[in-house]
Amino acid sequence: MKLTIIGGSKGTGAKLASLAQAAGHEVTVLSRSGQGPEGVRVLTGDAGDPSAAASAVAGADAVVVTVGGAKGNPRHRAAVTRSVIEAMKKEGVQRLMVQSSLGAGDSGKQMPAPLRVAMKVALAKPLADHNEQEAAVQKSGLAWTIVRPTGLTDKEPAGSWQALQTSQEGTLRGSIPRADLAACMLELLEDPASVGKAVGVSS
């Protein structure tokens, strides 16, 4: 699979890039810093720029957006995601995965009860960005999957995780190592049954 990761210079995106590359996939990373894991193709650019986004997704089988927030731009994730969606349509690329956050959309009920109120207050601005991002994805007409992790850590991976849709019973735990999230994302990316689904993920 030819995989493009938007925002793969660090964090979950970098973990996913390394994992996919080790699994034999051809990985391209687009980042503003021009940095990325060893062994992957790295492009320097801002995915909010239509030409940079088009260059990054051209020829890809799938695109994953893992960008974080940006200082001075409270809707950075949404803006980048819209740019990537338009680039994918232009280049004829259909498969899209976006890293959102638990609490976005209809996923609040999946959060551990003690965290629900606190997280809504503490993460109000990021969640508003993610809500706008998710809305753009769901209206895109692409073959999308939204992944909503709980709190991210750099702990050693356990090699297992919980993945729940909001239609399923149960709540998720409060955190997940980035490496486990990346492994989950790669698994979902390769699963046709995940298309059109939003999945909450925790340890």
Number-wise, the strands total 10
Give the class from helix and strand content and strand pairing: alpha/beta
- CATH homolog superfamily: NAD(P)-binding Rossmann-like Domain
CATH class: Alpha Beta
Structure annotation, total helices: 6
CATH fold name: Rossmann fold
Query: Helical content, roughly?
Result: 25-40%
Following the backbone from N to C, one meets helices and strands in this order, namely: EHEEHEHEHHEEEEHE
Strand proportion: 15-25%
Shape: globular
Radius of gyration: 16 Å
Q: What is the domain total for the residues? A: 1
Task: Give a written overview of the molecule.
With 203 residues, the chain is an alpha/beta fold. It has a single domain (2-202), classed as NAD(P)-binding Rossmann-like Domain (Rossmann fold, 3-Layer(aba) Sandwich), CATH 3.40.50. 36% of the residues lie in helices and 23% in strands. The protein has six helices and ten strands, in the order βαββαβαβααββββαβ. It has helices at 11-22, 50-57, 76-91, 113-122, 124-138, 178-189; strands at residues 2-6, 26-31, 41-44, 62-65, 95-99, 143-149, 151-153, 162-165, 175-177, 197-202. An eight-stranded mixed sheet has the order 3-2-1-4-5-6-10-8, with helices on both faces. It starts with a strand and ends with a strand. The mean pLDDT is 92.
